Amino acid sequence: MLEKLHDSLLKAPIVHRGEYHYFIHPISDGVPFLEPELLDEITEHIMEIADTDVDRIVAIEAMGIPLATALSLKTGIPFSIIRKRPYELDGEVILSQKTGYSKGELFINAIKKGDRVLIVDDVISTGGTLMALISALKEIGAEVSDTIVVIERGEGVAGMRELGFDVRTLVRINVDENGVSIEE
Ligand SMILES: O=P(O)(O)OC[C@H]1O[C@H](OP(=O)(O)OP(=O)(O)O)[C@H](O)[C@@H]1O
Ligand code: HPA
Hints:
Blueprint: H1 3-10, E1 14-17, E2 20-23, H2 26-29, H3 36-49, E3 56-60, H4 65-75, E4 79-82, E5 93-98, E6 103-108, E7 116-124, H5 128-140, E8 143-152, H6 156-162, E9 168-176, E10 179-182
Parallel strand pairs: 3-4, 3-7, 7-8, 8-9
Antiparallel strand pairs: 1-2, 5-6, 9-10
Residues 22-23, 28-29, 99, 123, 125 line the site of hypoxanthine.
């Protein structure tokens, strides 16, 4: 199961971002290139496990976009992208994003009270990004019916579960200077 994802992760190169060992992979970076068969394997799997009885798929710029696009085409559900730049539309919600290697702001538009949403993202590491997003969506009054992330590393998911956030992931990996290994 998820053979293409596992095989490709084992080949992922590592670069240093400060202290952080950053793996480079087609799903998390679009580098070197994302093969349709890999995207299809992953999105078919997401369709099997996710609650797709939702009004909107929600994904974070940039690498949530291919996942949301493929899922939207398969399900007919529209998607909204949480952007890294402001639009200054009425009701725009701004949140701070902090990962293991970066800091910035995210901007939510056009998600309103009562909307049922499925969140998808490529990677979870510290959980900083998703925790901020889910908290903001709950504040808006949207119902987060499900949160699915393709690749899990680090302690973010465990930390989020302790705080009552439910996140499901397709594969959990360890990353060090020698590369990626897959946790069984
Ligand atoms: O669990 P965290 O530590 O918060 O890290 C996870 C986030 O980091 C990556 O986003 P990044 O900001 O690098 O954006 P990208 O999709 O543009 O590469 C990834 O897409 C997640 O959104
Ligand atoms: O190591 C990583 N690689 C790609 N995307 C990521 N998002 C968080 N950590 C990583």
